[in-house]
């Protein structure tokens, strides 16, 4: 009777210099022996010894091989601020990345704790405990995701080794004009020299610059959902630069994990919470991107709202079309701009984007509709604020910076229902 197990595969593993498996071939259907994995990897003269122990069932042999592949990840990652939402989302996304492996995680207030104790949904991840930033060993790191609050990141990044590739998820390097940063964020910029080399990382718009960057300023969630539909329309001179009105709504995770009275369940549930009216800090970032696209100053009317949901973001954008232009012109421009893009999806005409259809994914889904007012159009753009609006786009950017396919580790499909 033929064995249901891959005997040839097992023989290959048995002969591999990287793995020795003591297997009783007379009991292929019920392995009892313990298999031990021992692998030495040399990287820049550094030897890493990785050991594991499994029971030699076919399932566990597959698990053993998976563990071996994990040990072969070539890029060592540091996650600064791993105890926040964007940090934990980086950890989740990297769990299935074939090349990026986490070697350092920091969280000053959670130092000494495991990621699973802070985020139980990540309890299966075999990762180092979190440490304070001052205790982090960056000699074992090739690239960093910086998920710290704005205002703290500039000095920390300035103190990191110069050879590290960095994607900063805070707002500290998004605004090129440091005077504008001080105006909107209420404090002087502490690393103006680094600001000069930072590349704004809206991937689909600036991928060529991102590839060659050392420091990338990852865009904010609202600016991502707004710029992706508007930039190609502005570049093609299809819409007027005046009277752009943006009504944007976000899940509560967009406000961060800190304990704030305004974010309590009773403050958020069963209602819509408008905030930052006329003074939200994403306004200058949005206007900077749209002004770059138009080569002139663009001012927008932007009002954000928190919705009683954990994650998701919708930007409803009202624009005036340029003279002689139609909805069909706008639709076709978006189609041409994004037909070859992995993560930007233009729906069929008339289909309405919904946040529930991008939850947990790196997709931006959009469409354009005629307004009842002649000459005006309505654009709807939806993303997951923690993925395409933060950690997913950050991973997309670091893939580019490290020379890997842009979609590596990001092909999670949306979670529904």
From TrEMBL:
Gene Ontology BP annotations? L-arginine biosynthetic process
- Any one GO molecular-function label of the UniProt entry: NADP+ binding
Q: Per its UniProt entry, what is the enzyme's top EC class, as one word? A: oxidoreductase
Pathway the protein acts in: Amino-acid biosynthesis; L-arginine biosynthesis; N(2)-acetyl-L-ornithine from L-glutamate: step 3/4
Q: What is its EC number?
A: 1.2.1.38
Q: PROSITE patterns this protein is in?
A: ARGC
List, alphabetically, the InterPro entries matched: AGPR (IPR050085), AGPR_AS (IPR023013), AGPR_dimerisation_dom (IPR058924), AGPR_type-1 (IPR000706), NAD(P)-bd_dom_sf (IPR036291), Semialdehyde_DH_NAD-bd (IPR000534)
Q: Name one Pfam family in it.
A: Semialdhyde_dhC_1
Q: Does the keyword Plastid apply?
A: no
Limits of the Semialdehyde dehydrogenase NAD-binding domain: 76-213
Reaction it catalyzes? N-acetyl-L-glutamate 5-semialdehyde + phosphate + NADP(+) = N-acetyl-L-glutamyl 5-phosphate + NADPH + H(+)
Among SUPFAM superfamilies, the record links this protein to: Glyceraldehyde-3-phosphate dehydrogenase-like, C-terminal domain, NAD(P)-binding Rossmann-fold domains
Q: Which UniProt keywords apply?
A: Amino-acid biosynthesis, Arginine biosynthesis, NADP, Oxidoreductase
- The active site is formed by 221
Q: Which family does it belong to?
A: Belongs to the NAGSA dehydrogenase family. Type 1 subfamily.
Protein name as annotated: Probable N-acetyl-gamma-glutamyl-phosphate reductase, chloroplastic
Organism the protein comes from: Tetracentron sinense
